């Protein structure tokens, strides 16, 4: 069976950190790997974030017999348009939708152009669905394989239940060769090309604003390190971003990785997510990792206010944030900080926040308004203050202001967010650091990304 897997293009309304990073579609690469276990399937990936195509012409040329599309919340509109384009070319082609939006809110895909929704994904249900589709011959909708007995697969024509329990996806090893034609484009801030690697599911930090631990579980579930080592050996990119929720939480795992890197003389640039709590707990292991290639840690400092840190269920204090920042500088590891703009800040809070960033002195800062995604407790808490509807999917991105501020007008709040982004991206993010670490071209690329982000906020401010 000829199967086409698609990552949609970024929606125009979305304000995302994609202005600064552009990563491989790891989920699609994993699905590709599973489907290719059956030699009878021919599988291709179309990454529309990396390649602009006329989808109708592309479908007519490639003639897929099944199409799978991955979706974030912001992608729903694009996914529906793609599915309808598939059906216009050939109404008998089954369309399957997966990704985090399918996991969290499959009801978003209750559309005649979509046949199946992957509420969760395993090797078994992928084989069962696509093998069944191959057997059916896909001549008419009636001949589509029955998904009633395939756990995790929802047949849209039979209706999508209003309430479904979240289930975990199986860890699947990706086939990175599936995106060989795009790999030079994938980057993480200044590291280009850069591969992604996941070594565990879940997170025990359970931050209140985070969806990911709710999808993966409230404790870390590490994978077999030999499986991870095999992937590192195969990755050809000079840089690897480890996308675990908190890769620095397990000193034993860190020590195993360090032994492996030293033994096999592997020299790569490693980037990872890490919590302040883990940085303070596992100093010896992290310092060792720094000597073997750890270049940067994305640290969720999130706030300068003790009460907000407590409300976010952060395991660190404002003072511990400063200690962690000092340790990373001591080890020669760059701190890429993330912060949340709270909707209840006043003008004084924004000023105090900018002073706090100067104290921390991160090399790069990522700033996002608090986003109460559906499924989070904050969604109910702020429901009466939401600025757009649940179905306005394109606007549910981390960069959009989604909650009406309580202590200033919306335009004034937009102005503070814009001014803070300008100050941080053009004056606090160290230009000398960017040039020294990545060169002038990367400085230009990230500056251009910052300008695009500022323009989007400026447009919102002028509405």
Q: What is the CATH H-level superfamily of the largest domain?
A: tm_1862 like domain
For the termini, the CA-CA separation is 49 Å
| Helix fraction bin | 25-40%
Question: Major β-sheet, in short?
Answer: 6 strands, mixed
Decide which structural class fits the backbone. Answer: alpha/beta
Determine the CATH topology of the largest domain: pyruvate-formate lyase- activating enzyme
Q: Any idea how many domains? A: 2
Separate helix tally: 17
Determine Rg (CA atoms, Å): 22 Å
Mean pLDDT: 90
Regions with little confidence, pLDDT below 50 for 5+ residues: none
Shape: globular
Summarize the structure.
The chain is an alpha/beta fold and 463 residues long.
Give an account of the 3D structure.
The protein has helices at residues 26-35, 55-62, 76-89, 100-104, 123-136, 212-216, 225-234, 251-264, 276-281, 283-291, 306-311, 318-331, 347-360, 377-381, 410-428, 431-438, 440-462, and strands at residues 2-7, 21-22, 42-47, 66-70, 95-98, 116-118, 153-155, 187-188, 194-197, 200-201, 221-222, 239-242, 269-274, 294-302, 334-341, 364-369. The chain is of the alpha/beta class and 463 residues long. Helix 13 (347-360) packs parallel to helix 15 (410-428). The chain folds into 2 domains: 2-158, Rossmann fold; 176-462, tm_1862 like domain (pyruvate-formate lyase- activating enzyme), CATH 3.80.30.20. Strands 3-1-4-5-6-7 form a 6-stranded mixed β-sheet, with helices on both faces. Strands 9-12-13-14-15-16 form a 6-stranded parallel β-sheet. The protein is built from 17 helices and 16 strands. It is globular and about 65 Å long. Helix 13 (347-360) links the parallel strand 15 and strand 16. Helix content is 40%, strand content 16%. It holds the Pfam family Radical_SAM. This is Cobalamin-dependent protein. One of its GO terms (molecular function) is 4 iron, 4 sulfur cluster binding. It comes from Candidatus Electrothrix aestuarii. Residues 189-411 form the Radical SAM core domain.
């Amino acid at each position: 069976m000829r199967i086409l897997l698609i990552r949609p293009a970024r929606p125009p309304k979305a304000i995302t950190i994609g202005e600064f990073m552009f990563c491989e579609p790891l989920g699609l690469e994993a699905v590709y790997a599973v489907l290719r276990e059956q030699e009878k399937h021919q599988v291709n990936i179309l990454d529309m974030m990396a390649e602009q195509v006329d989808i109708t012409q592309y479908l007519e040329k490639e003639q897929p017999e099944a199409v799978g599309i991955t979706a974030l919340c912001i992608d729903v509109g694009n996914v529906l348009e793609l599915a309808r384009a598939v059906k216009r070319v050939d109404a008998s082609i089954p369309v399957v939708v997966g990704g985090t939006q399918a996991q969290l809110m499959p009801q978003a895909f209750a559309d005649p152009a979509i046949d199946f929704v992957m509420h969760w994904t395993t090797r078994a249900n992928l084989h069962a669905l696509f093998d069944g589709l191959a057997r059916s011959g896909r001549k008419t909708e009636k001949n589509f394989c029955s998904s009633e007995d395939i756990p995790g697969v929802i047949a849209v024509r039979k209706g999508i239940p209003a309430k479904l329990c979240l289930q975990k996806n199986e860890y699947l090893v990706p086939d990175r060769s599936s995106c060989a034609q795009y790999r030079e484009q994938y980057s993480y801030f200044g590291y280009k090309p850069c591969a992604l690697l996941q070594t565990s599911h879940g997170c025990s930090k359970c931050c209140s604003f985070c969806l990911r631990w709710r999808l993966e579980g409230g404790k870390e579930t590490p994978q077999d390190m030999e499986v991870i080592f095999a992937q590192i050996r195969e990755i050809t990119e000079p840089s690897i971003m480890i996308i675990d929720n908190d890769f620095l939480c397990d000193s034993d795992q860190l020590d195993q990785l360090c032994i492996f890197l030293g033994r096999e003389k592997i020299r790569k640039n490693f980037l990872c997510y890490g919590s302040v709590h883990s940085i303070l707990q596992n100093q010896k292991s992290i310092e060792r990792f720094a000597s073997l290639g750890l270049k940067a840690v994305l640290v969720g400092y999130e706030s300068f206010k003790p009460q907000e840190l407590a409300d976010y269920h952060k395991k660190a204090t404002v003072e511990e944030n400063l200690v962690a920042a000092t340790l990373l500088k001591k080890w020669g590891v760059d701190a890429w900080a993330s912060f949340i703009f709270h909707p209840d800040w006043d003008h004084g809070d924004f000023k105090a926040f900018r002073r706090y960033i100067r104290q921390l002195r991160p090399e790069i800062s990522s700033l996002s308004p608090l986003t109460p995604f559906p499924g989070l407790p904050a969604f109910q808490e702020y429901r009466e203050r939401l600025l757009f509807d649940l179905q306005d999917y394109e606007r549910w991105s981390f960069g959009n202001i989604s909650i009406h501020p309580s202590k200033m007008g919306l335009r004034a709040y937009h102005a503070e967010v814009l001014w803070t982004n300008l100050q941080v991206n053009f004056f606090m993010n160290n230009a000398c650091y960017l040039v020294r670490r990545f060169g002038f071209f990367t400085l230009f690329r990230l500056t251009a990304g910052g300008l695009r982000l500022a323009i989007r906020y400026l447009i919102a401010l002028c509405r």
